[in-house]
């Protein structure tokens, strides 16, 4: 059975229109990408979709009550609700600097993207 | 107000977002005495609340979140020793002459007046609100603009609601749809007036990621709920955006998010008679982003609504170069300005006037989506082909100095099918 997946590349803001052919569970032709990162992502999107996740966590005694964070690498899409649950329970003390590793979740670093 | 303490600068930058910070950094590097004023409590404009990625790919050649992009510029600003005041609200600009201007501001340390030779106005934009887009009904709690919801969630850690309807499929609306979905709220629908989505293609993916229904050619016309929003009324529209009778339906929701576009903040500029372009909502500018009042420059979303922060920073830097030239020459020395005119399928563009003395980036938006097009400047014989143009995606085209210099009077920009 041959199936064609069509979606938009989200690797960068260019937003290339991608097409991935899958036949009997095997990746066939990939079309529409303009860079190697796009091609790689297209294949991953069909086989094991992942996303970098951004959120905010609570911060004590900071200038603002939250600090923004991101995962240092993309995480599997189906694990995102579990990660959000984990983040919602975190709380850190100020000061926090941009780039600080705030926590680790299944080996994925949670990095501060704002100072607090 | 004449007895307020007087400060003295070469350039006052109004606004501490990406345009203002980029302008201040460049102006300082060019040897000017710079003061940056921002009415918020922290630098960065709206960037600190834009916690999603997609910032700085052109400028820093890497993908950053909004707060990270802002932090990099703030660091440069501090390292260079640029004077800045936060929580400083500019009350008035006075334009005494080309090289004598006064900016009056209030701040927690008191009110001041600043004598300055140039001003770079980078005050950003405001969001259009519910009453501007024809929504009637009750005024219960639970109606926010997308930016307000973003401030609540991503600065203050407060969840604005549980069952959400979003008006507008532009980038801000889609990004907030994802934030709500991630934080466990139910996004019941995104309602888009136009027959096509308003955001960048990569953000449309969000709808697929979270199974959020998108209603194209629909509008929200009414909101009901005395204490708090309870339901919103949706109606289908025809190709002329007229409501189609009999197509009304209700969606139950406790929160209505308005993401219906941005409008440049130009109040302080109009007060001193700066000419405004009705198409962009921002000032008419030349190729150094100088407004119709000599020595007053503008940059970023207060000039034209940009989709990439990189362009905003670029405009800030250009305005700073303009301020340096203005001070050196006691005015921009250009004698002949070539008008850039809008042709077929061009809804808006900046800059409006070109000198032909320097290369220029043209920022423009089309009126309607088209495939396989040519962007043409017939008077100077320049053409370039593009596979696709969309109103949501800004066109950025470089015109070289020699190309512009070929024009006799005006230059027209048109986007035509091949």
Describe how the helices and strands are arranged.
The complex is a heterodimer of chains A (116) and B (418).
Chain A lengths: L1 E7 L8 E7 L2 E6 L4 H12 L2 E2 L2 E7 L5 E6 L3 E2 L3 H10 L1 E3 L7 E5 L2 E5 L4
Parallel strand pairs in A: 5-8
Antiparallel strand pairs in A: 1-2, 2-3, 4-7, 5-6, 6-10, 9-10
Chain B lengths: L5 E9 L3 H12 L4 E4 L15 E3 L8 E2 H14 L3 E3 L3 E9 L2 E8 L2 E12 L3 E3 L8 E2 L5 E3 H9 L8 E5 L3 H12 L3 E6 L9 H9 L4 E2 L2 E7 L6 E6 L12 E4 L2 E4 L3 E3 L2 H4 L25 E3 L10 H21 L8 E5 L5 E3 L2 E2 L5 E6 L4 E8 L4 E8 L5 E5 L1 H5 L5 E7 L1
Parallel strand pairs in B: 1-2, 1-8, 2-5, 8-20, 10-15, 11-18, 12-13, 12-18, 13-14, 21-28
Antiparallel strand pairs in B: 3-4, 6-7, 7-8, 9-19, 15-16, 16-17, 21-23, 22-24, 24-27, 25-26, 25-28
Structure report:
With 116 residues, chain A is of the alpha+beta class. Chain A is 19% helix and 43% strand. Chain A has helices spanning 36-47, 80-89; strands at 2-8, 17-23, 26-31, 50-51, 54-60, 66-71, 75-76, 91-93, 101-105, 108-112. In chain A, the strands form three sheets. Chain A has a five-stranded mixed sheet with strand order 8-5-6-10-9. Chain A has a three-stranded antiparallel sheet with strand order 1-2-3, with helices on one face. A two-stranded antiparallel sheet of chain A has the order 4-7. The termini of chain A are far apart. By secondary structure, chain B is α/β, with parallel strands linked by helices. Chain B is built from eight helices and 28 strands. Chain B has helices at 18-29, 66-79, 146-154, 171-182, 201-209, 267-270, 309-329, 401-405, and strands spanning 6-14, 34-37, 53-55, 64-65, 83-85, 89-97, 100-107, 110-121, 125-127, 136-137, 143-145, 163-167, 186-191, 214-215, 218-224, 231-236, 249-252, 255-258, 262-264, 296-298, 338-342, 348-350, 353-354, 360-365, 370-377, 382-389, 395-399, 411-417. In chain B, helix 1 (18-29) runs parallel beside helix 2 and helix 4 (171-182) runs parallel beside helix 5 (201-209). The mean pLDDT of chain B is 95. The chains are: A alpha+beta (116), B alpha/beta (418). At the A-B interface, strand 5 and strand 6 of A face helix 2 and helix 5 of B.
